[in-house]
Fold these 2 entries.
Entry 1:
Amino acid sequence: MPPTTVLESPRTRAKTHAAPLTLDGVTVTVLEPGGTPMPILDIPALRIAPGEAVGIAGPSGAGKTTLLHVIAGLLMPSTGAVTWDGDTINPRSEGARDRWRRRHVGLVFQDFALVPELSVTDNILLPARFDAWRTPPGLADEAAALAQSMGLAKLTMRVASLSRGEQQRVAVARALLRKPALLLADEPTASLDAENGAAVAGMLLEGARASGATLIAISHDAALLSRLTRVLHLKAGRIVEDIQR
């Protein structure tokens, strides 16, 4: 199993400031083919404290990914407010939400969302390069050190040539690089064997702990969910159980 130690630096460690996250009266409604509105998410109230490690569980179609996308500002709710550190996110313009995500959020998508033709290092650095014409001094070295700590030794290799488990580690490294205050992961251990799944889960948990970030992870993986401090169970778009350990 690769090591799960996530390297830190003064630059990245200083950036994280986890904050309270709240959802109030949040709903998402879509129109069926005949024009009939169909609710797919209904969250009257949800409070997540800074630094919590929260799992989102439930059957397929329960609204888990919809909830995560609403929290990330990728999907606008039909009603209600998503608030981070006292600021409501969802009324902002798309550009303003993009800037908020780049500043505060690390995302691990279920399909990884890597660029196949780019190298391991370039994929890890990609979000940071949206903010500047040139990579900030030292950040490439931090990306390389982080990748190596996750067992990724061939940093110049195209990610298309990597195994699925290695690609997942690249996605996690990219999300952790700038020590986000809010770490969101959609099925981060899906399709991985038990050993690789445990390694990726350890990287996420240790990365969040090291920087004091809030972690919210969708998962069907009982082993991962057992390591989190709180698990929300969704059914038909509603939270039907909130287990806190």
Entry 2:
Amino acid sequence: MTDSKSYLGWKIDFANPPGEPALVAPDSVQWRVFKNPVALGVGGVAAVLMEFADARIRSGVWDHSTYKHDPLGRSQRTGVAAMVGVYGPQSAARRVIQGVNNMHRRVAGQTPDGESYQALDTELLDWVSATAGYGFLKAYDRFVARLSPEDKRRYFTEGAPIARLYGVTATLRSEADFLAMMQKLSHRFEPHPIVREFLGIIESGRAAPGVPRFLHRALARAAVSILPPPAREKLELGAEYDLSPLEAMMVRAMAVLAERIPVKGSPPTEAAMRLGLPWDFLYRKPADRQRLLADAPTAPAPSRAAS
């Protein structure tokens, strides 16, 4: 057995214990989507933009987190929580999710206009979960590989049990569900300087200093490009944030490259090994993956294990 790795204070071993299932099965669409760091990056930024459209969430994140001071650490913690929910052993996933819930229990305050909020308000939890699920899916479908309507439906269905562990009550079944939720909340959406400040942080490269700055600009605009038009209009993110053809080509090239090259020691590869699968399982052809699942010494648990 390998030692647990420390992920920003959380001790998580994605490779152990052998055979312990994840909350989502390895043949899931979620396993395919979440392995791509470009899709997660673009989708995550888009999700934050949509969350910041609501003053309650914007105030909660900006006033109670380290994002404006430590965007890299804050982004990494969010990414780790997402990864452990999809790839981690169920016991570790439940522990991390409970830790996040405990942290959110302490987040409460007032918006600049005097409206009270609590991070565990079900309306806010539902919207945050919905924006993340929609953002990751939309980024993967736009910049990595097109997903069929059935795969999109499966993606949302697979994510629902994890969302419920966070206290989400309105889980999505389709993109139409997301758009309907957005329509109900859209009267609250508004532009704000914090939205542009957040995009400035992303464009500056502070959130991932190892990536060239011109790529950060492309990634920020890619995130804006996948916003539903009504949300982008409400946020007043105009033509100055349009994704150019060259930038779109760069983002797609990075995303496709990431889709083809497995990284040993990453959560997706270690989770595969934990279940008796080759470390590069997710990067093989669909027929090979099905054969490997049938032959695996540890039968992977179905997605309903999370419920």
